[in-house]
Amino acid sequence: MSSQQEPQLDQKPQSPSEMQHLSTRLQHHPYQPPAGFGAVEPGVHHASTVIFPDVATMRARDWRSKAGYTYGLHGTPTTFILEERLAALDGGRHCVLCPSGLSAIALVDLALLKQGDTVLLPGNVYGPSRELAERFLGAWGIQHQLYEATCTPEELAKLITPQTRLLWLEAPGSVTMEMPDLRGLIAVARQYGILTAIDATWAAGIALQPFDLGVDVVMQALTKYQSGGADLLMGSVTTRDDALHERLLLTHMRLGLGVGADDVARVLRGLHTLPLRYAAHDASARRIALWMQDQPQVAQVLHPALPGSPGHAHWQRDCTAAAGLFSVVFDARYTAAQVDAFVDALQLFKIGYSWGGPVSLAVPYDVQLMRPSTHWSHAGGLVRLAIGLEDPQDLIDDLRQAMQQMF
Which pLDDT belongs to residue 15? Predict the structure, then answer.
C-alpha cells in the first residue's frame, strides 16, 4: 500500500453527511437538540412544511385533529397552545385563530350562512361588520337586517322570519356602549332555532362569560386586550359544540386563514398579564368616567357600569368588570369643530383607532352618519375614550386642559 493510501491516524472516518456538499449539509444536518427543555414561554414554531417520519404517518394524519401536525396553515405547537388557552379563557372547547378580528367575523358569517339566509345585526354593530353584510353577503344572496341595540326580546322576535339563521350580538356597542339584554335575546334565538354569535372583544374573557348565557359562538379581536401592546392583528372564534366547530374549521381551511407564529407568541406572552392589565384599565376608566360626568361641557357619559348608561341593569346582571372603554357625549351647544378641537388639544391621549393597548386614545365619531337607520337621541358630538395604562390623574388633567380650549 502506498503512503497516499494509508489512513491518517489523527483523522476520523467521514460520515455520509460529511461527504455531502455544503449546501446539502446545511439543509440536512443530523444534529437534534436534546429533549427536556422547559421555559415559561413556549417555543415559537415557524412552519409551512411539516416533516413526517414515513408515508404511512403522513396518510393517516388528519389535519382537523390536534393529535398531530400536517401543514403550517393548520397549526404548529405554538398556535395550538394559544387556541387551547383562549378556549379555556372563553369557557369553550374549540378555538380557531384568524388574521384579524374582522376576518374572524367573516369566518363566522361564511361558515354559518348561505344564499337565501338572513342575519340579524345590532344597530350599533362594528362598522366593517355591517359593511361586510351590505357589500359582500348581500351580493351573494344573503340578506341582513338591523335591530335596535336596546331592543326587547319581544321586539326582536317580531323581526325573525323563516330565513333568519344567525343573530349577532355586540356587548357593549364599541362606540355608543349600549349593553343589550343578552339573556333575553339569546332565549328568543334559541326558541326559533337560530344560532347566536357575539363580539365579546370588550369583555376579553374576563368581564363576561357568553357561553354561560347560551351563546353558540364567541368571537374576539385579540388585537385588543389579549395582545395588550397595540402592535399586532389577530382574531379568534371559539365554540363549545363539536359539529359547529367542524363547520367553522372547514371554512377556515377553505379560506386559507393563517396567523404568524411570532404574533401568536406575542399574544401568548400578553395572556400572562391580561387580568392585571384589564383590572387597571377598568379602574382608571371608571374613575375618569365619573370625573367626566361632572363636567359642564358633558351631556352624558356612556359607560356600562354607570347608572343611566343604556343597558346598565343588564351589565349589573351579567358582567363582573367593565374594561377601559367609554364614550362622552358633549352638550349640543358645542359644534363638531369644537369637539374636534378638544381631541386635537389632548396631549397624553393619542388619536387613533383600536383600544386595549398601553396608550390612551381618543376618536370623535359622527353617530348619525355611522348608523343612519337606527335611533340615536343625542344631538351633541361624541368622543370615544380608550383608557390606557397611564396614571388616571394625569389623564384627567389632560382632559381638563383640552376642554378649556373648547370655548
Answer: 62
Angle, helices 77-90 vs 261-271, to 10°: value is 40
Distance of CA 207 to the CA centre of its chain: 14
Cell numbers linked to 400 = 381638563
Cβ-contact 176, 124 below 8 angstroms? yes
- Global pTM value: 0.92
In terms of C-beta density within 10 A (0-12 exposed, 13-18 middle, 19 or more buried), how is residue 228 classed? Answer: buried
CB proximity list for 338: less than 8 A, separation 6 or greater = 330, 381, 406
Q: How far is CA 198 from CA 167, 350, 374, 385, in A?
A: 8, 29, 20, 22
Partner residues linked to 169 by β-bridges: 198
Cβ-in-10-Å burial (0-12, 13-18, 19+) of 390 comes to middle
Q: Block means of pLDDT (10 residues each) for the chain, length 407 residues?
A: 48 62 81 85 93 94 92 94 96 97 98 98 93 95 95 97 98 95 98 98 97 98 96 98 97 96 97 97 98 96 97 98 97 94 97 96 88 72 97 98 86
pLDDT at 194: 98
pLDDT at position 367: 86
CB 380 within 8 A of CB 334: yes
Q: In the block, which residue shows the cell 337621541?
A: 377
Burial of 276 (0-12, 13-18, 19+ CB in 10 A): exposed
Parallel/antiparallel/unpaired status of strands 382-386 and 361-365: antiparallel
Q: What pLDDT sits at residue 369?
A: 75
**Phi-psi region at 116: left, alpha or beta (left = phi > 0; alpha = psi -120 to 50):** left
CA distance 275 to 204: 9
